[in-house]
C-alpha cells in the first residue's frame, strides 16, 4: 500500500541559514507512541537538509532508508513529501505542486517575513495528507488512466455479451421463421377441412 | 458453403473432364474440322482460364499465409501461457506479436484485393455462374478464416495481459516484504544522504521500530554532517548534473502518461464504433423476428377463424345431421339383414 508519512512546506533562504518550516502535517500513526517524538525530529531534520540542497526551480527525489523524500523548490518556497517507495513519482510532484499553489493562494507573500518555525497547523495540509494517500487523487492523469482501463474491461465484456446476444437472436430468427411456416401449414389445413366437408 | 476448408477434401478431376470433353467433341462433329473449331474455342477460354488460374494462385497464397499465421499464433499462445514470474520471454513475445500483426494486415489487404479482382472479372467477362459462385465462396471462406485467426490473436493478447497482471500482484506480494533493501536509482543523486543512509542501514533495517536506537542515530548523523561539509561543494556539481535528468524524466513520464491516455481513448472509440455496428445489425435481426411473429399471428388467427366456422357448420348443420342419421340407419339395416 502506498503511503504518505508527512508533508512539509519550508521557506528556503538562498544560502547559509537553515530553511524555516512554514507548515507541516504528518501521519505518525504507524509508529508507537514513544517513537513519535524522535521520528518527528528526524523528519524535521531531513526536510531541512533536503530543502536546503534543492536549488530553486528544481525537483528532487532522495531515497532514505525505506522512504523517498520528494522536494520541489519554487521561488524560495519548498514543498516536501515523505512517501514510501511505491508512490508514483509523478503523482508525488503533482501533489507538491498543488500544495504550493494552495499555499500561495492562502498566505500570499506573507511567508517572506517569517523568521522562526511556524508552529500553527494549516488544516489544508492535514486533509491533503489524508486525501492523497491514494495516488490517484493527487494525479489526475493516473485517475483518468485507471478509469479508462476499467472502462475498457467493461466494454470488452459488453462486446462479448453482445456477440452472445447475436447468437441467440440468430436462433430466435430461425425458430420464428419455422413457427411462421408451421402456422401457415396449419391455416391451409384448416381451410382445407372447411372446404371438403360440404360435399358430405 | 460448398468449399470445405483445406484443399485435401477437393478432388481435382480436371483431367477426366478434359478427356470427356475431347471425346464428346470428336463424337459430335467428326467432319467439321475439329481442330479449327477446337483452336477457335480455345482462344476465348484461355484468358478466362488465365484469370481463373491467377485467382486460384492468389487464393492459394492467401490460404497458405493464413495457415502460417495461425501456426505463429499457436506458438505465441504457448509462449504467453508459459510466462512465469521470473522467466518472462517479453522480447520474443513482443516481436512475435508485431510480426503476426503485420501478417494479418497484409493478409487482410490481400483478401480485399482478391475480392475486388473477382468482382471486376465477373463484370467484364461472360463467365459461367459456377465460376462466380466458386470465387465468391472461396473469398468468403478466406475472410472467415482470417477473422477467426484475428479473434484467436485477440484472445491470446488478453490472456497475456491477465497473466502479466497476476505476476505483477505476486511480485508485489513478494517484493513488499523485501523492500528493506533500497535498491533505488535515486540513491546516486544524493551521495551525502546515501552515505548517512548506508551507515544507518548497517543498524537494523527497521529504523522506526527501534525507538531507542533512532535517537542515537540522529546524533551520529549530525556529526557526519559537520564532517562532510567540505565535500559539499564537490557534490553540488554532481547533483546539478544529475538534477537535469530528473526534470527530464519527470517531463517525459508526464508526456508518456498523456500519450497512453490518448491511445487508450482512441482504442475505446474504435471499440465503441464496432459495438454500434454490431448492435445495429442485431437490430435488423430483431425486426425480422418481429415480422415473422406477426405473420405467425395472422396465420394462426385465420386458421382459428376457419376452424370456428367449421365448428359452427358442424354443430348447426341440421341437414348434415339428417344425412348422417340416414347413413347410420342404412348400415344398421344391412347389418340386421345379414345377421338375422
TrEMBL record, chain A:
UniProt-listed InterPro entries? Longin-like_dom_sf (IPR011012), Longin_dom (IPR010908), R-SNARE_YKT6 (IPR045848), Synaptobrevin-like (IPR001388), V_SNARE_CC (IPR042855)
Q: What sections of the sequence does the record tag as coiled-coil?
A: none
Q: Which UniProt keywords apply?
A: Cell membrane, Coiled coil, Lipoprotein, Membrane, Methylation, Palmitate, Prenylation
* Membrane topology value: Lipid-anchor
| PROSITE patterns, A to Z | LONGIN, SYNAPTOBREVIN, V_SNARE
Tell me where it resides.
Cell membrane
Q: Which family does it belong to?
A: Belongs to the synaptobrevin family.
Name of the protein in its database record? VAMP-like protein YKT61
- Origin species, per record, is Sesamum alatum
Automatic annotation (TrEMBL), chain B:
Write down the Gene3D superfamilies for this protein, in alphabetical order: 1.20.58.70
Where does this protein have compositionally biased stretches of type Polar residues?
Answer: 28-38, 173-186, 211-220
Low complexity bias (residue ranges): 191-203, 229-245
- Name the domain of life: Eukaryota
MF annotations from Gene Ontology:
SNAP receptor activity; SNARE binding
Q: Give the UniProt keywords, A-Z.
A: Coiled coil, Membrane, Protein transport, Transmembrane, Transmembrane helix, Transport
Q: List this protein's GO terms for biological process.
A: endoplasmic reticulum to Golgi vesicle-mediated transport; intracellular protein transport; vesicle docking; vesicle fusion
| CDD domains listed in its UniProt record | SNARE_syntaxin5 (cd15844)
**InterPro entries (UniProt xref):** SNARE, Syntaxin, Syntaxin-5_N, Syntaxin/epimorphin_CS, T_SNARE_dom
User: Pfam families of this UniProt entry?
Assistant: SNARE (PF05739), Syntaxin-5_N (PF11416)
Membrane-traversing stretches: 318-339
Q: What is its main location?
A: membrane
Tell me yes or no: is Membrane among this UniProt entry's keywords: yes
- Where in or outside the cell is it found? Membrane
Ranges for domain T-SNARE coiled-coil homology come to: 248-310
Q: Which SUPFAM superfamilies match?
A: t-snare proteins
The record gives the membrane topology as: Single-pass type IV membrane protein
- The annotated region (Disordered) lies at 1-49, 173-245
A GO cellular component annotation here is:
Golgi membrane
Family membership noted in the UniProt record: Belongs to the syntaxin family.
Q: What is this protein called?
A: Syntaxin
Phylogenetic classification of the source organism: Eukaryota, Viridiplantae, Streptophyta, Embryophyta, Tracheophyta
Amino acid at each position: 500500500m502506498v503511503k504518505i508519512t508527512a508533508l512539509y512546506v519550508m521557506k528556503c533562504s538562498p544560502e547559509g541559514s537553515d530553511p524555516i518550516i512554514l507548515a507541516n502535517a504528518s501521519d505518525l500513526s504507524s509508529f508507537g507512541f514513544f517513537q513519535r517524538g524522535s521520528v518527528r525530529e528526524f523528519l524535521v531534520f531531513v526536510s531541512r537538509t533536503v530543502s536546503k540542497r534543492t536549488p530553486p526551480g528544481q525537483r528532487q527525489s532522495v531515497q532514505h532508508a525505506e522512504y523517498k523524500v520528494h522536494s520541489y523548490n519554487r521561488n524560495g518556497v519548498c514543498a516536501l513529501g515523505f512517501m514510501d517507495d511505491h508512490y508514483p513519482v509523478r503523482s508525488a510532484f503533482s501533489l507538491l505542486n498543488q500544495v504550493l499553489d494552495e499555499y500561495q493562494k492562502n498566505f500570499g507573500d506573507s511567508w517572506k517575513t517569517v523568521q522562526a518555525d511556524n508552529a500553527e497547523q494549516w488544516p489544508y495540509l492535514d486533509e491533503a495528507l489524508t486525501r492523497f494517500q491514494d495516488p490517484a487523487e493527487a494525479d489526475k492523469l493516473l485517475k483518468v488512466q485507471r478509469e479508462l482501463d476499467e472502462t475498457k474491461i467493461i466494454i470488452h465484456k459488453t462486446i462479448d455479451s453482445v456477440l452472445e446476444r447475436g447468437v441467440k437472436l440468430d436462433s430466435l430468427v430461425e425458430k420464428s421463421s419455422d413457427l411462421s411456416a408451421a402456422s401457415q401449414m396449419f391455416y391451409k389445413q384448416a381451410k382445407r377441412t372447411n372446404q371438403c366437408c360440404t360435399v358430405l | 458453403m460448398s468449399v470445405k476448408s483445406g484443399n485435401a477434401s477437393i478432388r481435382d478431376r480436371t483431367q477426366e473432364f478434359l478427356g470427356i470433353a475431347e471425346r464428346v467433341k470428336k463424337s459430335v462433329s467428326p467432319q467439321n474440322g475439329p481442330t479449327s473449331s477446337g483452336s477457335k474455342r480455345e482462344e476465348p477460354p484461355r484468358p478466362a482460364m488465365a484469370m481463373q488460374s491467377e485467382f486460384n494462385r492468389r487464393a492459394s497464397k492467401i490460404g497458405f499465409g493464413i495457415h502460417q499465421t495461425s501456426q505463429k499464433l499457436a506458438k505465441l499462445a504457448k509462449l504467453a501461457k508459459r510466462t512465469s514470474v521470473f522467466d518472462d520471454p517479453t522480447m520474443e513475445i513482443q516481436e512475435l506479436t508485431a510480426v503476426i500483426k503485420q501478417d494479418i494486415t497484409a493478409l487482410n489487404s490481400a483478401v480485399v484485393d482478391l475480392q475486388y479482382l473477382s468482382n471486376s472479372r465477373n463484370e467484364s467477362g461472360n463467365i459461367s455462374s459456377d465460376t462466380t459462385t466458386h470465387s465468391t465462396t472461396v473469398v468468403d471462406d478466406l475472410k472467415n478464416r482470417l477473422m477467426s485467426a484475428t479473434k484467436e490473436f485477440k484472445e491470446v493478447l488478453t490472456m497475456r495481459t491477465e497473466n502479466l497482471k497476476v505476476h505483477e500482484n505476486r511480485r508485489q506480494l513478494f517484493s513488499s516484504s523485501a523492500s528493506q533493501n533500497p535498491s533505488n536509482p535515486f540513491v546516486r543523486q544524493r551521495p551525502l544522504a546515501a552515505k548517512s543512509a548506508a551507515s544507518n542501514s548497517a543498524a537494523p533495517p527497521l529504523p522506526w521500530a527501534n525507538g531507542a536506537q533512532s535517537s542515537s542515530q540522529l546524533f551520529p548523523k549530525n556529526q557526519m554532517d559537520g564532517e562532510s561539509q567540505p565535500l559539499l561543494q564537490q557534490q553540488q556539481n554532481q547533483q546539478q548534473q544529475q538534477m537535469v535528468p530528473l526534470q527530464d524524466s519527470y517531463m517525459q513520464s508526464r508526456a508518456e502518461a498523456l500519450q497512453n491516455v490518448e491511445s487508450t481513448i482512441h482504442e475505446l472509440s474504435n471499440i465503441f464504433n464496432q459495438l454500434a455496428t454490431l448492435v445495429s445489425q442485431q437490430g435488423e435481426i430483431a425486426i425480422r423476428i418481429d415480422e415473422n411473429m406477426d405473420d405467425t399471428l395472422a396465420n394462426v388467427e385465420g386458421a382459428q377463424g376457419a376452424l370456428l366456422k367449421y365448428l359452427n357448420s358442424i354443430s348447426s348443420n341440421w341437414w348434415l345431421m339428417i344425412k348422417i342419421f340416414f347413413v347410420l340407419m342404412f348400415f344398421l339395416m344391412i347389418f340386421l339383414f345379414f345377421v338375422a
